[in-house]
Each structure stands twice: as structure tokens, then as C-alpha cells.
Amino acid sequence: MDIINSFELYLRDQAKDQQTIKAYKQIAINYYDWVGGEEKILKAKPVDIKEYTAYLRHEKLLSAVTVNKYLAAIKSLYSYIEENGQLLLNPTTRIKSIIVSNNFGDSNKWLSPKEQDRFIAYADLERNEWLRIRNLAVIDLMLYAGLRVQEVSDLLVADIAPEDNHINITVRDGKRGKYAVVKLVHKYSRNLKKWLNLRKQADKPVHVQSANLFVSERSEQLHVRSIHKFIKKYGDLAGMSFVSPHCFRHSFCKNLAREGTPIEIVRRLARHEKIETTAIYIEPSGEELIGALNKM
Fold first, then answer.
1. Which of 94-103, 185-194, 226-235, 240-249 has the lowest mean pLDDT?
2. Which superfamily does 113-289 belong to?
3. What DSSP string runs through 208-254?
């Protein structure tokens, strides 16, 4: 299964988050087993991809949303193979995602304003003051500056630059290796400013020697896994077990859209390459549609 292992390395080079890498690799293994090995993968035709889609829908009974996730992973696999010069024809080029008509399901991509407030209220109950300020600062960077969880974990103290009460944040290695400078505005900067003061006062050797902005109690860096862990902890306490770090980035985009922000500005603030990626946040949510029905 050399092709699967090299595909995993490709995903890491593409700066995919750990959850995506894990999911895509598992889907690639599933497809590898279904199609019958590496040689069959390289010789696959569009009809094979359609048959695989039919298998997922009618034998595995997966939802259309899940099948689309499988297709996204398979398309990524073939993009890698094509870039590697091993394909004469990419069988996924004309394969389209399944159109899903579910106006009322947001699939927990983002949190409603009430859910955001509820989650933060439970995070604010953290008894350890050091952890409380650190974790709230992490959440603020995802929810109010739109950072991805890996970007937060990778931040250095040197990447934080106060400017006119706001804070400029340098993202040195974002998605697909992109460099960017984003801003955390003054009204949401309190926790990060408090954390910067605590960080300067850190006297443990492991912290003093570290250049990382966020550290754990025992190590020089707060890793993505640890962020997932405390997000899950607060989510469970709040009765919101579906919450993940990426929900906050989605919520950042949706909050902008709720305020009527033009889609091009949302795109730029979210650092999306394509306007189509941003469009999902401009569409009315299930909550908004139900609200419209209740007003009749």
C-alpha cells in the first residue's frame, strides 16, 4: 500500500489538518480495498468511480453528505497521482458531488450566537486561571480572527504584534503553506493580551526556552491534539458534544455573513482562494429559514 502512505505524506505537505489527513487516508484505504489494489487504482475509469459511488450509496447506505466527503478524498488521491505523473487520465475530473437538498440542516458546521455564548460561558468556568486565560485566547483566535487550529498551535510569541489596540497575527505557514497577517480587533483581544502577560511571566525552563505562543503545562508547545481535548471537554460540559475547533472558524465566517458583510470581504478575511468556498456562509442557515417560517 505504498500509494496510500505516499498519499498521506502528500496531504501533510498540503498542510491539511490532522483530522482531514486521518479521514482521507481511511477513505483511500477503503477505496483501495474495494477497487482491488494499486494497479486497479491507476487504471480506473470514470465508470469505476461512479460504481464506487453507487456502492457507497446503495450498499453501504451512506448519506449523500458522507458520500461527498468520500468523493472529495478520492479526488484528492487522484490529484496526487496525477501530479506524480502516474496517470494518463484522471477518472474523477468530471465526477460531480451529489446535490443535497436539505435546507434546514447546517450539519453543525457553525455555532449559532447563543451556542457560541453558551460554549464560552462553560470555558470561562475553568478553575485553573492559567488554563482559563490560555484556552479562551485560543478560542478567540479561531472564533474572532478565523485561524485554523494548526495555525494557532504553530504561533510563536514573535508572531503577535499589538497595533492601535488591535493585534496583528502573523500566520507563517497556513493552508497550502500560505503566509498571511490577520487581525484580532480590540473588542476581542482581552484574553490574548492577558495570556501574553502570563506567557512573559512563565518561569518553567521548558516555557522559558520555548518560542511558541501557546504552551502546555508540561511541554514547550500546545499541540492540536491538546486543543481538541479541551474543546471536547467544554463542549461536553455545555451539552454540545458536536463542537470541534473547526466549528469556530466556520462560525467566524458565518458571523461576518450574519452582519451583512459583502461576500468578497468575507472571502478575504477567511483567506479563501475561491469565492465558491465562501458562498456557503452567505446562504441562509436552517435556523434563519425556520425563523422566516415562524414569522408567517
1. 94-103
2. Intergrase catalytic core (1.10.443.10)
3. HT--BSS--SSSSS--HHHHHHHHHHHHHHTT-TT--HHHHHHHHHH
